[in-house]
C-alpha cells in the first residue's frame, strides 16, 4: 500500500488526554512540531488512527485535523522548521 504524508493539528483541552494523544502519534511522526506532527501512513494505518482518536479525544472539548499533503506542492519552512525527507525527495524549501 502506498504511504501518504499527512499533517495533524490538534488542540486537546485536558492535560492527560493531551499527553495520550502526543504519545499516540510518536510512532507515526516523521517531522513537525509538538502538536502539529507530520505522519507518513498507509490507508489502513490512517483508518486505525481515525478509530483510535475517536476513543482518545473528547468530541465536545478537543479539536483535531488530519490534512493530506499533496506531494506535488513544495512546503516553505522558516527558521528552525523542518519537514519530512523521503528518499531523494526533500519536502521542505528554505
TrEMBL record:
<dbReference type="InterPro" id="IPR021127">
    <property type="entry name" value="CRISPR_associated_Cas2"/>
</dbReference>
<keyword id="KW-0479">Metal-binding</keyword>
<comment type="function">
    <text>CRISPR (clustered regularly interspaced short palindromic repeat), is an adaptive immune system that provides protection against mobile genetic elements (viruses, transposable elements and conjugative plasmids). CRISPR clusters contain sequences complementary to antecedent mobile elements and target invading nucleic acids. CRISPR clusters are transcribed and processed into CRISPR RNA (crRNA). Functions as a ssRNA-specific endoribonuclease. Involved in the integration of spacer DNA into the CRISPR cassette.</text>
</comment>
<feature type="binding site">
    <location>
        <position position="11"/>
    </location>
    <ligand>
        <name>Mg(2+)</name>
    </ligand>
</feature>
<keyword id="KW-0051">Antiviral defense</keyword>
<dbReference type="GO" id="GO:0043571">
    <property type="term" value="P:maintenance of CRISPR repeat elements"/>
</dbReference>
<keyword id="KW-0255">Endonuclease</keyword>
<dbReference type="GO" id="GO:0016787">
    <property type="term" value="F:hydrolase activity"/>
</dbReference>
<dbReference type="Pfam" id="PF09827">
    <property type="entry name" value="CRISPR_Cas2"/>
</dbReference>
<keyword id="KW-0460">Magnesium</keyword>
<comment type="similarity">
    <text>Belongs to the CRISPR-associated endoribonuclease Cas2 protein family.</text>
</comment>
<keyword id="KW-0540">Nuclease</keyword>
<dbReference type="InterPro" id="IPR019199">
    <property type="entry name" value="Virulence_VapD/CRISPR_Cas2"/>
</dbReference>
<comment type="subunit">
    <text>Homodimer, forms a heterotetramer with a Cas1 homodimer.</text>
</comment>
<dbReference type="GO" id="GO:0051607">
    <property type="term" value="P:defense response to virus"/>
</dbReference>
<dbReference type="GO" id="GO:0004521">
    <property type="term" value="F:RNA endonuclease activity"/>
</dbReference>
<keyword id="KW-0378">Hydrolase</keyword>
<protein>
    <recommendedName>
        <fullName>CRISPR-associated endoribonuclease Cas2</fullName>
        <ecNumber>3.1.-.-</ecNumber>
    </recommendedName>
</protein>
<dbReference type="GO" id="GO:0046872">
    <property type="term" value="F:metal ion binding"/>
</dbReference>
Amino acid at each position: 500500500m502506498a504511504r501518504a504524508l499527512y499533517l495533524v493539528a490538534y488542540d486537546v483541552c485536558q492535560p492527560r488526554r493531551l499527553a495520550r494523544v502526543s504519545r499516540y502519534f510518536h510512532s507515526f511522526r516523521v517531522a513537525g512540531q509538538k502538536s502539529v506532527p507530520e505522519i507518513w501512513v498507509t490507508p489502513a494505518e490512517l483508518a486505525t488512527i481515525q478509530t483510535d482518536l475517536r476513543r482518545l479525544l473528547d468530541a465536545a472539548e478537543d479539536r483535531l485535523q488530519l490534512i493530506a499533503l499533496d506531494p506535488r506542492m513544495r512546503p516553505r519552512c522558516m527558521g528552525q522548521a523542518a519537514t519530512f525527507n523521503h528518499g531523494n525527495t526533500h519536502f521542505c524549501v528554505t
